[in-house]
Automatic annotation (TrEMBL):
Gene3D superfamilies noted in UniProt: 3.30.60.190
Organism: Sapayoa aenigma
PROSITE patterns listed in its UniProt record: ZF_HIT
Protein name: Box C/D snoRNA protein 1
Record's subunit section: Interacts with FBL, SNU13, NOP58, NUFIP1, RUVBL1, RUVBL2 and TAF9. Interacts (via HIT-type zinc finger) with the RUVBL1/RUVBL2 complex in the presence of ADP.
Length: 239
């Protein structure tokens, strides 16, 4: 048993492949490793280790995906006139701001997450926004971000040494300890080949709307906050 190291192992976890001797040790290993005990159907398997069982598992996984997609396509909200009208209005308003906004079919995670709205009274977008800090493996989701807010103000609660939340600041201390001139905000350019990924550099002093103009957005913007000295594989367009 890899948990107590006393008894002979009887069970093996389908997810992390750890050996356990009893139900108590199974529960302990799940708690210690944050393991849910469910086999990872999408885990990488090398060609040399690939067997008929893996092939059957992949086939069943694709069948499950097909059933889920079919069920989503039959959902009443997909064919709801109100939903279609709302999405059309959202894309049309974005087009008027020189932003090509693309929406995904119901069933996709980004479609389900997206909470972007447009206020006709204020004539402004309130964006669903995702911030990714790759050097700390951290992601934060913001809702209702007004399009006239500058990127610098959006990032203040996260990387500003004075105004940031203490818990967030501790997690992102590699950013807060670095000079602001070293911080770079990037956004992935859509509709490019997978082997030719490029990023646009955004201007922190300008508003979110100004930075999004002339760009393709799939559901909502995802901003990558990086440090110039540590950025390696993220190529900015034009470099």
């Amino acid at each position: 048993c890899e948990t107590c190291s006393k008894e002979a192992a009887k069970y093996r976890c389908p997810r992390c492949m750890k050996y356990s001797c009893s139900l108590l040790c199974v529960k302990k290993h799940k708690l210690a490793l944050s393991c849910n005990g469910v086999r990872d159907k999408t885990a990488f398997v090398s060609v040399n280790e690939f067997t008929d069982l893996h092939l059957l598992s992949d086939y069943r996984f694709l069948e499950d995906v097909g059933r889920t997609a079919d069920a989503a396509a039959r959902h009443c909200t997909v064919h709801s006139p109100a939903t279609k009208r709302l999405l059309y209005c959202l894309r049309n308003k974005a087009r008027g701001c020189n932003i090509e906004l693309k929406t995904l079919p119901v069933g996709f995670t980004k479609r389900r997450e997206n909470s972007t709205t447009f206020s006709s009274v204020e004539n402004k977008f309130y964006w669903h926004l995702k911030l990714v800090f790759p050097h700390c493996h951290a992601e934060y989701t913001l809702k209702g971000v007004p399009d006239d807010k500058t990127l610098a103000d959006i990032l203040k609660p996260y990387i500003d040494p004075v105004e940031s939340d203490p818990v967030v600041c501790q997690r992102l201390k590699i950013y807060t300890a670095s000079p602001q001139s070293d911080v770079q905000i990037l956004m992935k350019i859509e509709n490019r080949n997978r082997n030719s990924v490029r990023y646009n550099e955004l201007d922190a002093s300008r508003s979110l709307l100004d930075n999004l103009k002339g760009k393709v957005i799939i559901e909502y913007p995802t901003l990558f906050v990086v440090l110039k000295t540590l950025k390696k594989d993220m190529v900015v367009l034009g470099q």
